[in-house]
């Protein structure tokens, strides 16, 4: 690992306590630490990180005041609203205390974009704030366009217009616009506007992506936001990432993969939040079984709605199905995903198209089947299938025949092979951009000097 001399400047990081946000924030922390910055992390009690996994950093817990009913990802917008209301005073007290402590001067505050309340506090304390947006740039452009999309009549989304193209944001269709199911869609709209306004008031915007993947979105966001933008990804490929996993990964899947042929296994995982109905679970399971391909499936506690969301057993397959796939399938509650994707036996990834999963798949050259469910996932899937052409969207429903067909297209047919070739080119670009002279390398140098210039 590149380890610069300590330079006596501290950064304070404030991650959003969800898996898909914690991973990139801690990877960013590792990167900036390797550039010589000291790192302090302010964190909520909810999904608190384990300091033992990051012994170089100092940790400052704050009381998030979440009620038991609020401390859940069932309604993420409700969770974000509660956190942004309840963390204000504890965060301000913690940060001012840190600023008044003797010790290394604090150069910058880095927060997740979904902590909009922190901009006013940073301003009040005269501390510059930089934002990490954990999605890609293209979907963020769409998120930032909510006022325009409302003005043009796309929002609120009408069910009879889902297939229409969004002329202002090609190649997106109406159904690809970020959507989150919550009681009041107005709350989502307001949260999006507030988030973007507070990003515009910040001193810079970091993305876990790379310029070659999203050139036009990068110029659009620069123009729209008027602040420096730093696409410095893929984060996890810069330095070996430390673990920020909330659930313990089951390493048995690696020994299982060791016994499978190259590119033969479909890895199936829908991230940390997506929940599906029992009926969908069964169609997925039957489709996988009928495809006759080996698969490794992450059935996370809580994946199937109504089943236990605590840690514990995964949702069982019906007996008949379990017998049918015995020897050809391996099921775990949580996987060491980076290792699984990098394994030579893994030949395809059926994903919910969360941005971390998508980028991780690109970095290992693994083509995808996309089953986006909410937020940025639909836009990610559109880029995967229509722009980068490295994956298949399951657009005609989740029936078992559709599933079986998609799996065979990806794993057996020529179409899948062509996608594997195209994603191998993206993988190469993802590697080159990090090397001396590469785009992400250059942006990281810029970011580091930006943070030292204040
Ligand atoms: C959420 C949103 O859904 C996503 O769209 C947004 O871009 C970020 O926040 P999540 O749904 O969890 O995240 O998906 P994703 O972005 O793919 O992040 C999941 C992370 O968990 C990945 O880094 C992945 O490597 C890790 N993971 C997932 C595991 O380590 N093991 C698993 O079994 C599954």
UniProtKB/TrEMBL annotation:
GO molecular function: quercetin 3-O-glucosyltransferase activity; quercetin 7-O-glucosyltransferase activity
Keywords: Transferase
InterPro entries per the UniProt record, alphabetical: UDP_glucos_trans
Coiled-coil zones: none
Keyword RNA-binding tagged: no
Pfam family, one: UDPGT
Family per record: Belongs to the UDP-glycosyltransferase family.
Protein name: Uncharacterized protein
Organism: Nepenthes gracilis
């Amino acid at each position: 690992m590149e380890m610069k001399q300590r330079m006596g400047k501290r950064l304070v990081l404030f991650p959003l306590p969800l898996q898909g946000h914690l991973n990139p924030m801690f990877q960013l922390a590792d990167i900036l630490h390797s550039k010589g910055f000291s790192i302090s992390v302010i964190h909520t009690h909810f999904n608190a990180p384990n300091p033992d996994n990051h012994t170089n950093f100092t940790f400052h817990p704050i009381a998030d005041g979440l009620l038991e009913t609020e401390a859940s990802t069932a309604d993420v917008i409700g969770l974000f609203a509660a956190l942004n209301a309840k963390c204000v005073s504890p965060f301000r007290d913690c940060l001012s205390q840190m600023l008044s402590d003797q010790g290394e001067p604090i150069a910058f505050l880095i927060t997740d974009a979904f902590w909009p309340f922190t901009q006013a506090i940073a301003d009040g304390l005269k501390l510059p704030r930089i934002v990490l947006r954990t999605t890609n740039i293209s979907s963020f452009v769409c998120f930032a366009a909510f006022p325009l999309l409302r003005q043009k009549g796309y929002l609120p989304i009408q069910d009879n217009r889902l297939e229409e193209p969004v002329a202002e944001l090609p190649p997106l269709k109406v159904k690809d616009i970020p959507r989150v199911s919550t009681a009041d869609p107005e709350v989502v709209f307001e949260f999006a506007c507030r988030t973007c306004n507070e990003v515009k008031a910040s001193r810079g915007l970091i993305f876990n992506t790379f310029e070659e993947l999203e050139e036009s979105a990068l110029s659009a966001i620069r123009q729209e936001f008027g602040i420096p933008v730093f696409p410095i990804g893929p984060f996890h490929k810069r330095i070996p990432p430390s673990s920020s996993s909330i659930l313990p990964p089951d390493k048995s899947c690696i020994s299982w993969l060791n016994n499978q042929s190259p590119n033969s296994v479909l890895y199936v995982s829908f991230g940390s939040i997506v929940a599906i109905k029992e009926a969908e679970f069964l169609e997925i399971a039957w489709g996988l079984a009928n495809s006759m391909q080996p698969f490794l499936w992450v059935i996370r506690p809580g994946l199937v709605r109504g089943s236990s969301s605590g840690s514990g057993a995964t949702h069982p397959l019906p007996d008949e199905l379990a017998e049918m796939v015995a020897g050809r399938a391996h099921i775990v509650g949580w996987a060491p995903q980076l290792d699984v994707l990098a394994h030579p036996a893994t030949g395809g990834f059926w994903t919910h198209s969360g941005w971390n999963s998508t980028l991780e798949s690109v970095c290992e050259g693994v083509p995808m089947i996309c089953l986006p469910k909410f937020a940025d996932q639909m836009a990610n899937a559109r880029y995967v299938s229509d722009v980068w052409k490295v994956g298949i969207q399951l657009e005609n429903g989740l029936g078992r025949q559709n599933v079986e067909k998609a799996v065979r297209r990806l794993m057996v047919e020529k179409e899948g092979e062509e996608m594997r070739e195209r994603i191998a080119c993206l993988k190469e670009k993802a590697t080159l951009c990090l090397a001396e002279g590469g785009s992400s390398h250059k942006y990281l140098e810029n970011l580091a000097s930006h943070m030292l210039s204040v």
